[in-house]
Amino acid sequence: MIRPVAAAIAVLLAAAPAAAGEADVLNVEVRRSGAGAYSFDVRVRHADAGWDHYADKFDVLAPDGTVLGTRTLHHPHVDEQPFTRSLTNVAVPDGIAEVTVRAHDKVHGYGGRTVTAALPR
After folding, report:
1. What is the mean pLDDT of each run of 10 residues along the chain (121 residues)?
2. What are φ and ψ of residue 11, in 5° steps?
3. Angle at Cα 71 formed by Cα 49 and Cα 82, nearest 5°?
């Protein structure tokens, strides 16, 4: 027979990875790195809970939703929150004045806070 306390603990442990929530973009710094190319320093916050639930990438999007660049994050940042990573030499088509950056995590996918940043000219 499972005791009520043990059952409650089991439910909490099973739900722990989901408790980390979605990955949020906190800040984006943009630098022009060449003709039509930009570099992005992106600050992300996510309650990484280990290898099964962590922020695993961020994307730079054109206004129409086209993905212009993706930075894959290959490991959890459990003890480094929030963290900043860079994505360099992202080609941005002429006529685009701003981009949106979104983050992704292994459990929830997309859905956290995004940041829209103006491109320096």
Report:
1. 49 45 93 93 88 91 97 84 93 96 93 94 82
2. -65, -45
3. 40
